[in-house]
C-alpha cells in the first residue's frame, strides 16, 4: 500500500482530534511526538521537505510520513556506519503532559487521574476548569469529558493556550468539545455570553479559589437538581483552610482534603558479591603481596586501565542505566541493536552464568548487568522525588434539589 | 428518570451509612430496605430524588423496636441484592465481626418515614442548613472546640481521670429512647455531649474519637449514591474483600485509566482478576455509565484464564445485557492464543439448507440449531483472536508477567500504551527488566500512587492517623515498532 | 557453671538499669519481656515459684531463671507430645515501646529515633520532656542521654509512670538518670525545686506547646551560651501554626517542621503461574468435560476436600504467614521444629523444584511457600499503615551568646 | 574551650552557606577561610563563639573585588580540609556544575570583617532581632505577602507578562555594587524587591522561588556548626556523594541507631561501607562526640572487606587517635572468619630474651622488633575473632546478605538486635525470607522511614515540592537461642 492510499483511507478520522481518537499511519500535517529520551519528547507537525534535527542526526519528515505510529526511525549519523534513532508517537494527553511547554506549574497525571476519577468524569460530564495554565489537564479533560469549559485570566497565556487547542483540534468551533475564555473568574464569575454552563463538575486551580466559589452559585453555572462536584487545587495549607471555609459557607457537602503521593521506580541491578568472593580477593592480594610480584601489579593496572576504557565510569554507568535503552536506541550502531537482542535472549537464563572471580575488588568498574557477574534485580527510587504538588479539596452539592415526580423509565 | 442522576427503579445504588460503611441495594418497586439499627424505609419513598441525597429516618415515638414482618421482607430484599447474603447481612456492616456473631444481633428497626435533607441553593440561604453527616459531626466538634476555647486555651485532659461511664450522665436506656423518638441523630449527640461532664476536659484527640464514635452509633441517616466503580471498590474494601480485586486502590485504578488513555472509541485488550471491576471502570470512561448511543463506540476484549469469564460485578451496572455483549467480548487464553482455524470449525459442522432443516426431526432440529449457534460463537472467537492492533493493553493478572506480557504485546498497535497492574512491586520489576531489553517496548516505568486523606475539619486538620496500605503498583510503557536491523547495513 | 555462680558473678551490673546495660543470664527479680508473638509481648518480673500462663501452656519462672537472655523456652501443652514455646528477651527501650501499657498516644520509634538524632542527644545531653505520657520516649531518652527531666501534669499518669521508672531502675534517686515531676509546665514552667535544669534539648508533647515555650526563657532552664534545640510534637496543623508563631516570638531560629513516614513490609511469596499452566488447565478441563467423566470430578472433589483439610484456607494462610513463625515456634510439635529447619535447607535451591501442574486452578488453596510450586519473593505493605502521628517542629537558639575569651585547650 | 559547644582551634566544623550548601573546614590558628562570592574571613575572628553562631561578612566599600594573595591562601586552607580539593572548590558549591567550569569562575572575595548575629535572650528583646538566614527570607517573604494582601486578595500573576529582565529595574552592576558596600544581604534583597515592578503580581509560588533565588545569591552570611554525623551526611548529600554511603538517609541512620539499642557500654560488631560515617554516628551515641572518660565504655569491632579498613571520615572527629584505636578494633573478613591460631603465630616468631636482643646487630634488632609488633597485632586479631556474644550486629554492606548474615549472627549474644541496612529493598527481602526460616532469628522486619520536610513559613506552609528519594531500608530482628529439639523428645 502506498503512502497516498493510506492517506486517503484515513481521512474520515481526520476531523477528530488526535487527542480523542487513534491514528494508524503518520500523515502530512499530523502533530506527532518525537521521543528522543524520557526527558526529551518534542511535538512536531509533519511537513514534507522539513527536517527534525537531533545531536544524533537529521530526520527528514518524509522519512516519517507514511510510517505507522510507534515506528522507530533511523538516520545515518555523521560518523560512518553509525545510526541515530527516534520514535514517532501519536500524542496522548499523558504523553503531552510529559512534553508540553510549561507556561505554569502543571497538573501531573498522579493528581489529574485521581481528580478525574473523584469528579466522576466521563462522556456525560461538562466540566469547568479555571485556570487553564499550561493546558496539561485541559487535554486530559477534553479526552474524557463531553464538554470542557476552561478559563484563563492571564491574557497572553490564554492566547497561547487557545492557539494550542486550535492546532490540536480541540476547540468547539472546530468540531471539538473545548471552550476557552479569557476571564478572571474570581471577579467576573463563570457566565458565558452565549449559553448556560450547566456544568456537572468544577476544577479550580487558582491562587484564591475562595473568591471563585461564591460565583458558582450564579444561576446556570452548575446543573440543578443533580449532584455536582468541585475540586480545588492549592499548594499551601492556609489556602486549604480558606477554601474549606468558603465551601462550607456556600453550602457544599462531603468536604474532604487529600494529597496524592506518587513515586517512580527505576529498574536496576545490584551485583551479587559473596563473602567467599571477598575472602578470596583478600587471599589473592596477600599472595601477590607476599610474592612481591610488583610487575604483575603493573600489568594488572594496565588491564584495569584498558577495562576502564572499555566500560564506563561508575557515575556514567548510573546515568546510562537510567536512560541506557533510550541511548542505545539513539546511539548504537546497527550491530549494537543486534547485541541488544542477544542480551535479551541470554537474559532468560542468567543463572547458567558462573559468577566470575573479580580480582580487582570494588575499585574495578563493572557495567551494570555485565553477564560475567551475577546480579539481582532491584528497584531504585528516583534520587529526587516530587514530594508535593498541591492539596486537593473535594466537595459536592445538589443545587435546587427536588423530587422528580414522573419517572419516565418506569 | 435518568438513573445516572436520580434514584430510579430497577437500578443498583450504593447506600452510605453513618458508620462509614456502605451497602449495595437494588431499587425495587414497593420494596423495603433495612439498615439494621440505622432503621428501615420504603423504597418508593426515595425514588425520584437526585442521587447523592441524604435522608433521615424518622420514627413516631410509639413504634416498637421489634422485628416486624415488613422488616423480614426488607432484609430479604437487601440480601437478594448482595452476593454473599450471609456476610452482607445488615448486622455485619456495623460491627465488622464474623457473620456468626452478627446473626444473633440481627434485629431490624421497623420502617420509618423518610425526610430528605435539602441542600441550600446559595450562600445566603444555607447558613443554618448544615446537613450531611460529615458536616454535622464537624459542627458538633466545632461547638465542642468553642466550649474548650472558652474554658482554657491549653485544652488538655489533665484532670480527666478515667471513671468509665460515670462521667456520662445519660444511661443507654435514655439514649435508646431518644433514638426512637428523636427526629435527628444530631440532637441525640448534642444531648449526649451536654450530659458528658468532662467532654471539655478531653484532649482534641479524645474529643474527636468520642464524637466520631457517638456519631457512628446514633445517627439514623443514610445517603443514596450512584454506584461508581470507585464506590464499588470502596464497598469491597470495607467488606474486607480487596483480595478479590488483587488489593487495587482507587487511586491506582484511576492512574491506570489515564495511563491507558482510555476513551470512547478505543478497542482494549484486557485481562482482569477483579471480577469485572476494572472493566466497569473502563466502561465509565468509554460509555459514561449507561447505554450510550453514539457511533464508533469502542470495545473491550476480555481475556480470561479460567473456563468462563468472571464479570460478576457488572450485574450492578446500568448497562443492558445487549449493550454489554455488544461491547465486551470474552475469550479464554486458550482460545485466544491457540485459536481454531475457520476450516477446522467448518469441518465439525454439516451446513444444511433451509429445506434440509425443515425436513429434520424436531429433536434433531434443535440439536442442529445448537450446533450452528456453537459454530457462530466459535467463529466469533476465531475472529477476535485474529484481531491485532489493539489501542491499549490493560492487565490485572497474577499470571507470570514475563512470559505473558510479551505474547500479549504482539496484539498491540504501535504507539499505544501497555499498563500492567500488580499487587506487588516485584513481578513488575521482573517484567520491567524483561521489557527493557525488548526493543518493542519504550521506556517501561514502574510507579506507585497513594492518596492520603485528611481530617478536613477546620481548626483540627491533620492527615488521618491510619489509612489503608497496599493498593498495588503499575508498569507503564509504549508499544513501538523497532527498525529492522537488516535494513541498516 | 551453676545458676548460683552466675547469679553472683553478675551482681556488679545489678545496680545499672536493664534498659541501660546488657545482661547475660536471667536472674530472679529481673524484669524480662516474654515474646509470645509480634503483637503480644509481656513484661514479667521473674520470681521462683511463680508461673507465666499462655494458651499454649504454663511456664514456671524457674524454667526461665538461669537461662541466657534470648532463650526459647518450651513447655509441654495439655495435649500429649505437643510443646508450647516462648522467647525471653532483655527489655530494651524499643521493645518496651512495642509492649508497654498505653496510657496515652505514644511516640513510636520512627519518630523518636529522628527526634533523638535531630536534637543531637548523647551521653552529654540533658533533655526536658513534657509530658511523660506512657513513658515510651522517656525510656529511649534515659538509655541515650546523660540526664532526663520529664514532666507530667496528669497526676494519676504521673504516679503510674514514676512507679514504672522506679521498677526499671531509671530514677535518679536509685542511681539512675531520670527525674519525673508532676507539673503543668504550661502554667507553672519547668523550674525544679532543688536545682537548675540546664537542659541542652527540649521535647514538648503537649496540646498547647505555645503556652510552654515562653517558660523556656526562665533563667536556669536552658544552657546559656550554647546552642540548644527544641522539638514540638503536635498532631494538628493549626497547632503547628501556633507553635511556629510562639517559637518566632521567643527568638528561636532554624525553625523547621517535618513529618516522618514509616512503613513496615511483610515478606511474602507469590505463586509463579505461567500462561502455559493456565492453558493446560483449560485443556485438561475441556478434556475431562468432553469425556464426560463425572466420576473423576467427584474423585477430584474428594481430593480437593482432603487437601483443603490439610492445608489452610486462603484467609488463614494469610494470617498465618504473617505470624506463622511465631506460631510455629509456639505451637508445633518437636518434630515440627525439625521440619522447619528442613524448609530452610531446601529453600536454598527452590529453582530445582519443577513447577507442578495444578489441575484445580485458582480455587484450590495452596499454602504459601508450598515446595510443590514455584514462588517469587514479594514485599507486602501492611494492610493498614500509620499514616500520621504528629508533625515535628524543630528550632534552635543560643541564650546569652558571648565569646569565650580564654581558650583553655590552646 | 569545649569543642562540642564552642568554636575551638584544631577541630573540623561545618560551615553552612546561604545557598543551602555546606563545607567542612578546619579551624587552624591564624588561617583564613574563603567562601567564594560569599566572602572570606580570618579564622581567629570566629574562635570562641558558640557553635551554631551565624556571622555576617562586612566589607568597606573601598575593597576591590579581585583575587588577592590572602584569598589564594584562603582557598588553599579550605582545600586542605577537604578530601577532593578539585570537586570541593568553592565554586562548585554555588553552581553544582562540573568542576571544569567552576575553576574558571573561581574568584574569592577579599577578607572581610566578621559580625556575629546576637540571639535574643527572651521574647521582649527580640521583636526586631530577626537573624538567621532562614528567618530572614521568611521576613522578606512575609513582607511581600503583606504587600499583596493590601493590593488584591486573589493574588495572582494575571497581568504579569514575562518580559525577562525588563521588569527588574536594577542592573546587575548596581546589585554588585550594593553587595560590596552593604552591611547586610537582607538589604540588598529588599532593594531588589522594591525595584522589581511586578513582584506583587507574582503568584505565591513565583514569589517564593524569586525570594529564595535572590537570597541564595546575595546574602553574605555563614553559620558555623558542630560537625555531627547528620551534618556530615547532609554535606555528602549536597556534594552528590551519597553513593559513597550507599545512599543512606539521616532518618534511616537514626532509626538504625535506635533499633540497634546503641549505648555507651555496648560491644558492637559492625560492617559499614560508608567510610566511617556510621561508626561516627555510633560513637556519638556511645561517647558523645569526644574522648569521654568513663569506666566500662564499649567498643566497635569493625569488619572490613578490603585489605584496610576505610574509616576516612573519622578524621573530621574530635576523638584522639589513641581513643579511636582503643575503642575501634578493625579486622578483615578473612582474619575474622579464618583466624590463625596462637600456635601458628608463635611458630613464625623466635622469642628472644633481653640479653639476646641486646646482642643483636642494630639492623637485626629493628627487624626483630617489627616482627614482634606484627606478632602482637596478629595476636590481637586472633583475640578479636574469638570473641562471641556481641551486643549488636550492625551492617551496611553490599555483600550478599543471605550468605553473610547467618555467619555473622553466630557472634551475637541472645536477645540482642541485628540491624541491617541496604540501599535496596530486594536484598533485605531475600534476607528476611532466609532468616524467617532460621530459628535463631526472631521476627525479622523490613522497614522504611522517610522524613518529609515542609516550608515552615507561616501563611505559606506546604511540604517542600521536591525532596530526596532513596534513603534505603532496614531489616531488624532479635537473635534468640532456640530449644534443642533433641531435648523435647
From TrEMBL, chains A, C:
Binding site for S-adenosyl-L-methionine: 134-137, 152, 184, 205
Record EC number: 2.1.1.220
Biased composition (Basic and acidic residues): 324-344
Biased amino acid composition, Polar residues: 308-323
Database matches in PROSITE patterns: SAM_TRM61
Region (Disordered): 305-363
Domain of life of the native organism: Eukaryota
GO biological process, one term: tRNA methylation
Top-tier EC class: transferase
Keyword S-adenosyl-L-methionine belongs to the record: yes
Keywords for the protein's UniProt record, in alphabetical order: Methyltransferase, Nucleus, S-adenosyl-L-methionine, Transferase, tRNA processing
Domain tRNA (adenine(58)-N(1))-methyltransferase catalytic subunit TRM61 C-terminal: 84-396
Pfam families cross-referenced by the UniProt entry: GCD14 (PF08704)
Cellular compartments annotated: Nucleus
Known catalytic reactions: adenosine(58) in tRNA + S-adenosyl-L-methionine = N(1)-methyladenosine(58) in tRNA + S-adenosyl-L-homocysteine + H(+)
Gene Ontology cellular-component annotations: nucleus; tRNA (m1A) methyltransferase complex
GO molecular function: tRNA (adenine(58)-N1)-methyltransferase activity
Similarity annotation: Belongs to the class I-like SAM-binding methyltransferase superfamily. TRM61 family.
Function: Catalytic subunit of tRNA (adenine-N(1)-)-methyltransferase, which catalyzes the formation of N(1)-methyladenine at position 58 (m1A58) in initiator methionyl-tRNA.
Name the UniProt record assigns to this protein: tRNA (adenine(58)-N(1))-methyltransferase catalytic subunit TRM61
Annotated source species: Hanseniaspora osmophila
Taxonomic lineage from the root: Eukaryota, Fungi, Dikarya, Ascomycota, Saccharomycotina
From TrEMBL, chains B, D:
InterPro entries on file: TRM6 (IPR017423)
Comp. bias (Basic and acidic residues): 79-89
Cell compartments where the protein resides: Nucleus
Keyword Ribosomal protein: no
Segments crossing the lipid bilayer: none
GO biological process, one term: tRNA methylation
Coiled-coil zones: none
GO cellular component labels: nucleus; tRNA (m1A) methyltransferase complex
Region Disordered: start-end pairs: 68-105
Chief localization: nucleus
Family statement: Belongs to the TRM6/GCD10 family.
Function comment: Substrate-binding subunit of tRNA (adenine-N1-)-methyltransferase, which catalyzes the formation of N1-methyladenine at position 58 (m1A58) in initiator methionyl-tRNA.
Official protein name in the record: tRNA (adenine(58)-N(1))-methyltransferase non-catalytic subunit TRM6
Source organism of this protein record: Hanseniaspora osmophila
Amino acid at each position: 500500500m502506498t503512502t497516498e492510499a493510506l492517506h486517503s483511507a484515513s481521512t474520515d478520522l481526520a476531523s477528530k482530534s488526535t487527542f480523542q481518537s487513534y491514528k494508524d499511519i503518520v500523515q502530512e500535517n499530523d502533530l506527532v511526538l518525537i521521543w528522543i529520551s524520557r526527558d526529551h519528547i518534542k511535538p512536531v507537525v509533519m511537513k514534507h521537505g522539513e527536517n527534525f534535527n537531533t545531536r544524533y542526526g537529521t530526520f527528514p519528515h518524509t522519512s516519517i510520513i507514511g510510517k505507522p505510529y510507534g515506528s522507530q526511525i533511523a538516520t545515518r549519523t555523521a560518523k560512518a556506519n553509525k545510526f541515530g534513532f527516534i520514535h514517532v508517537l501519536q500524542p496522548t494527553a499523558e504523553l503531552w503532559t510529559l512534553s508540553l511547554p510549561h507556561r505554569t506549574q502543571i497538573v501531573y497525571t498522579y493528581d489529574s487521574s485521581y481528580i478525574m476519577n473523584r469528579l466522576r468524569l466521563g462522556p456525560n460530564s461538562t466540566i469547568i476548569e479555571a485556570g487553564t495554565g499550561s493546558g496539561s489537564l485541559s487535554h486530559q479533560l477534553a479526552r474524557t469529558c463531553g464538554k470542557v469549559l476552561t478559563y484563563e485570566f492571564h491574557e497572553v497565556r490564554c492566547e497561547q493556550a487557545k492557539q494550542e487547542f486550535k492546532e490540536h483540534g480541540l476547540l468547539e468551533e472546530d468540531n471539538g468539545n473545548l471552550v476557552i475564555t479569557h476571564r478572571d473568574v474570581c471577579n467576573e464569575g463563570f457566565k458565558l455570553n452565549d449559553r448556560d454552563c450547566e456544568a456537572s463538575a468544577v476544577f479550580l486551580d487558582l491562587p484564591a479559589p475562595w473568591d471563585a466559589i461564591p460565583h458558582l452559585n450564579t444561576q446556570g453555572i452548575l446543573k440543578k437538581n443533580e449532584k455536582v462536584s468541585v475540586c480545588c487545587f492549592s499548594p499551601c495549607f492556609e489556602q486549604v483552610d480558606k477554601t474549606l471555609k468558603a465551601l462550607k459557607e456556600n453550602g457544599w457537602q462531603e468536604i474532604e482534603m487529600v494529597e496524592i503521593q506518587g513515586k517512580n521506580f527505576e529498574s536496576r541491578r545490584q551485583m551479587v558479591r559473596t563473602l567467599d568472593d571477598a575472602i578470596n580477593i583478600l587471599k589473592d592480594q596477600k599472595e601477590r603481596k607476599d610474592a612481591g610480584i610488583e610487575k604483575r601489579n603493573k600489568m594488572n593496572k594496565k588491564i584495569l586501565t584498558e577495562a576502564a576504557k572499555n566500560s564506563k565510569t561508575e557515575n556514567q554507568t548510573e546515568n546510562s542505566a537510567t536512560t541506557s535503552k533510550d541511548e542505545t536506541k539513539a546511539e548504537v550502531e546497527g550491530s549494537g541493536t543486534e547485541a541488544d537482542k542477544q542480551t535479551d535472549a541470554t537474559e532468560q537464563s542468567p543463572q547458567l552464568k558462573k559468577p566470575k572471580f573479580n580480582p580487582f575488588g570494588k575499585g574495578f568498574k563493572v557495567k551494570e548487568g555485565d553477564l560475567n557477574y551475577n546480579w539481582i534485580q532491584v528497584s531504585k527510587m528516583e534520587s529526587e522525588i516530587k514530594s508535593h504538588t498541591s492539596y486537593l479539596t473535594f466537595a459536592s452539592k445538589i443545587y435546587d434539589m427536588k423530587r422528580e415526580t414522573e419517572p419516565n423509565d418506569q | 428518570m435518568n438513573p445516572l442522576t436520580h434514584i430510579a427503579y430497577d437500578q443498583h445504588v450504593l447506600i452510605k451509612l453513618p458508620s462509614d460503611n456502605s451497602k449495595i441495594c437494588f431499587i425495587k418497586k414497593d420494596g423495603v430496605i433495612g439498615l439494621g439499627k440505622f432503621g428501615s424505609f420504603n423504597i418508593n419513598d426515595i425514588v425520584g430524588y437526585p442521587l447523592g441525597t441524604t435522608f433521615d429516618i424518622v420514627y413516631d415515638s410509639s413504634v416498637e423496636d421489634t422485628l416486624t414482618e415488613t422488616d423480614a421482607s426488607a432484609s430479604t430484599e437487601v440480601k437478594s441484592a448482595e452476593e454473599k447474603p450471609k456476610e452482607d447481612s445488615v448486622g455485619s456492616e456495623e460491627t465488622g465481626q464474623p457473620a456468626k456473631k452478627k446473626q444473633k444481633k440481627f434485629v431490624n428497626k421497623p420502617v420509618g418515614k423518610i425526610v430528605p435533607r435539602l441542600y441550600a441553593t446559595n450562600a445566603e440561604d444555607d447558613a443554618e442548613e448544615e446537613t450531611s453527616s460529615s458536616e454535622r459531626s464537624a459542627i458538633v466538634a466545632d461547638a465542642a472546640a468553642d466550649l474548650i476555647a472558652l474554658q482554657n486555651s491549653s485544652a488538655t485532659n489533665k484532670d480527666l481521670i478515667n471513671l468509665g461511664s460515670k462521667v456520662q450522665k445519660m444511661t443507654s436506656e435514655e439514649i435508646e429512647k431518644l433514638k426512637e423518638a428523636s427526629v435527628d441523630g444530631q440532637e441525640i449527640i448534642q444531648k449526649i455531649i451536654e450530659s458528658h461532664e468532662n467532654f471539655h476536659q478531653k484532649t482534641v484527640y479524645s474529643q474527636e474519637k468520642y464524637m466520631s464514635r457517638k456519631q457512628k452509633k446514633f445517627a439514623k441517616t443514610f445517603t443514596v449514591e450512584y454506584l461508581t466503580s470507585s464506590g464499588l471498590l470502596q464497598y469491597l474494601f470495607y467488606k474486607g474483600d480487596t483480595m478479590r480485586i488483587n488489593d487495587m486502590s482507587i487511586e491506582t485504578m484511576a492512574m491506570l485509566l489515564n495511563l491507558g488513555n482510555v476513551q470512547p472509541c478505543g478497542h482494549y485488550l484486557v485481562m482482569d482478576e477483579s471480577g469485572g471491576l476494572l472493566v466497569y471502570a473502563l466502561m465509565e470512561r468509554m460509555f459514561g455509565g449507561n447505554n450510550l448511543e453514539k457511533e464508533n463506540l469502542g470495545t473491550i476484549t476480555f481475556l480470561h484464564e479460567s473456563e468462563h469469564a468472571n464479570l460478576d460485578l457488572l450485574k450492578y451496572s446500568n448497562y443492558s445485557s445487549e449493550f454489554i455483549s455488544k461491547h465486551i467480548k470474552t475469550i479464554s487464553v486458550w482460545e485466544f492464543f491457540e485459536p481454531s482455524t475457520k476450516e477446522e470449525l467448518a469441518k465439525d459442522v454439516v451446513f444444511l439448507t433451509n429445506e434440509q432443516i425443515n425436513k429434520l426431526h424436531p429433536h434433531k432440529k434443535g440439536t442442529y440449531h445448537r450446533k450452528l449457534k456453537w459454530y457462530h460463537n466459535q467463529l466469533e472467537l476465531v475472529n477476535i483472536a485474529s484481531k491485532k492492533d489493539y489501542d491499549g493493553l490493560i492487565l490485572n493478572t497474577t499470571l507470570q508477567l514475563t512470559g505473558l506480557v510479551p505474547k500479549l504485546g504482539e496484539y498491540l498497535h504501535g504507539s499505544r500504551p501497555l499498563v500492567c497492574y500488580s499487587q506487588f512491586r516485584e513481578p513488575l520489576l521482573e517484567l520491567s527488566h524483561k521489557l527493557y531489553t525488548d526493543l518493542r517496548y519504550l521506556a517501561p516505568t514502574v510507579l506507585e500512587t497513594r492518596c492520603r486523606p485528611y481530617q478536613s475539619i477546620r481548626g483540627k486538620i491533620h492527615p488521618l492517623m491510619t489509612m489503608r496500605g497496599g493498593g498495588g503498583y503499575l508498569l507503564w510503557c509504549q508499544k513501538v515498532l523497532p527498525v529492522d536491523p537488516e535494513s541498516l547495513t
